Amino acid sequence: MLATLSSSLGLAPIAPVHAPRTGARAALRMGTAADDMGIPCEGDCAITYSKLPDSVKPGVVTGQALQDLLDYAKSEGFAIPAVNCISSSSVNYCLEAARANDAPIMIQFSSGGSQFYAGKGLDNTDYRAAIAGAVSGAYHVRAMAEQYGIPVILHTDHCAKKLLPWMDGMLDASERYFEVHGEPLFSSHMLDLSEEPMDENVDICVNYLERMAKMDMLLEMELGITGGEEDGVNNEDVNPEDLYTKPEEVWQVYEALSKVPNGRFTVAAAFGNVHGVYAPGNVRLDPEILGNSQIYIADKLGMDKGTQPVNFVFHGGSGSDINDIKKAITYGVIKMNIDTDTQWAYWKGIRDFEAQYRDYLQTQIGNPEGAEKPNKKYYDPREAMRAGEKSTVDRLQQCFEDLNCVGVLGLQAPEVNNVLGPRRGGLPV
Predict the structure, then answer these.
(1) Beta bridge mates, 274
(2) What is the per-residue pLDDT across 85-114, written as a single tens digit (0 to 9) for each?
(3) DSSP code for 196
(4) DSSP per residue over 279-303, as a string?
(5) Sheet hosting strand 233-235, strand order edge to edge
(6) Among residues 157, 168, 192, 402, which one is catalytic?
(7) What is the rounded distance in angstroms from the CA atom of residue 130 to the CA atom of residue 113?
(8) Three-class SS of residue 365?
(9) Contact of 285 with 321, CB cutoff 8 Å
(10) Contact 298, 305 (CB under 8 A)
């Protein structure tokens, strides 16, 4: 299946992972994604950040640079917004918002979002469309993140057991990318096996982390169940006890994954999280679970009091109480997922655009300015889509502020200044 997929994407057959090469191949890996794609740029592509570790550069961050970024977030008390994307438009508003807030961002694709990125007209048997869409989205992110001059964590969301073929396909693509560039295509992936028995959840995560560690990739795993409904997975009637993880369970995961050589991982521990937005009082978060888990594991490892060995992630962030968000960050949350709120923000921008120009959107010709006046500049899809993008950028501003993630890069100006370098098939701008 992947051989056919690779051919359809213009990729060479998947090659096995081995030690990085030297010579000409090593020199090729030194170039940026923008260089490889024929859109090299000066200025923002080459900037450094006055506040971040030196390893973190503009573009997709992987391996040690990713670990350094997450460690820095924890030490400085901020979390990185993780936004589910379904199109180039949603990727672009994430990059725009991150640049405006002088901050990193995590761009992630779900299986359904990946399939939509590829096009709903494609056959998704064996998750072929979802694999192709995720890979296509990854290349788009790699091309544009450098142009915006910000660090991006390229991630995928909730991979349940039935979706493991999707994960396998993406890892095949990363292994090929690693063969050529010395780093994986994606920064990280999430396995959500929370509905499986605990031992099976841990064993499968260990097996995948062993494969991913060879490329210096990070694994996010889930403990407990995130309630609500998202991307076709409905947990609205789940047992309430499953929404709250126990410290002993976090330790079981930490102990097992820590034994994987070069293994990097984060833990999505459930503390009442729910996908979606609900009326106040309907969602009861308990961030103390995260704090108690840090204490429990630090004690197991003989660490000093106050040490936080686990990097936690916060699912179901949309609509959460700001006090719960702030408290969760103090307990080692370095990433918060946002989807429902950005969906609404994008729709609101389109809805408001339609309301403002309704009389210009009913016919191709004829509006309040005259019966023969054309309306093309109003019904051009770019106009409504841009309204959705701008509305979502504004909403993400609040997300960055809520997560203490504003001004953390140390950029000198919020404006993007991506100046194309030597023309090697660069964009015609």
Answers:
(1) 227
(2) 999 999 999 999 999 999 999 999 999 999
(3) S
(4) -TTS----THHHHHHHHHHHHHTTP
(5) 233-235, 227-230, 274-275
(6) 157
(7) 8
(8) strand
(9) yes
(10) yes
- Non-local (6+) Cβ contacts of 175 within 8 A are 14, 15, 16, 17, 184, 215
- Nearest CA to 253 out of 310, 171, 187 is that of 310
DSSP type of residue 159: B
Residues 6+ positions from 141 with CB-CB distance below 8 Å: 60, 91, 107, 152, 154
Q: Are 104 and 80 in contact (CB under 8 A)?
A: yes
Q: For residue 383, is it within any domain? A: no
The reply to whether 205 falls in a domain is: yes
| CATH code of residue 295 | 3.20.20.70
Q: What is the pLDDT of residues 108-154, one digit of tens each?
A: 999 999 999 999 999 999 999 999 999 999 999 999 999 999 999 99
The dihedrals phi and psi of 63, each to the nearest 5 degrees, come to 55, -130
Instruction: State how far the Cα of 10 lies from the Cα of 15, in Å rounded to an integer.
Output: 15
Burial of 145 (0-12, 13-18, 19+ CB in 10 A): buried
Catalytic (active site) residue 157 = yes
Q: What is the number of other CB atoms lying within 10 angstroms of the CB of residue 277? A: 16
Q: What are phi and psi of 198, to 5 degrees?
A: -55, -50
- Is 319 within 8 Å of 276 (Cβ atoms)? yes
Provide the domain count of the chain: 1
Contact between residue 146 and residue 34 where contact means Cβ atoms under 8 Å apart: yes
Residue 24 pLDDT level (bands cut at 50, 70, 90): very low
Asked if the structure places residue 323 within a domain, the reply is yes
Q: Where are the beta strands (DSSP E) in 255-403?
A: 264-269, 274-275, 312-314, 333-338, 365-367, 370-374
Residue ranges making up the domain that contains 185: 34-277+284-346+396-411
- Rounded-to-integer distance, Cα 180 and Cα 173, Å: 11
Query: Which phi and psi (to 5°) does residue 263 adopt?
Result: -75, 130
Could you tell me the two tokens for 297?
């594991």
176-180, 362-366, 413-417: which has the minimum mean pLDDT?
Answer: 413-417
Could you report how far apart the first and last alpha carbons of the chain are, in Å? 38
Length of the chain: 429
Check residue 44 and give its pLDDT: 75
Query: How far is it, in rounded angstroms, from Cα 150 to Cα 57?
Result: 8
Whether 311 is in a domain gets the answer yes
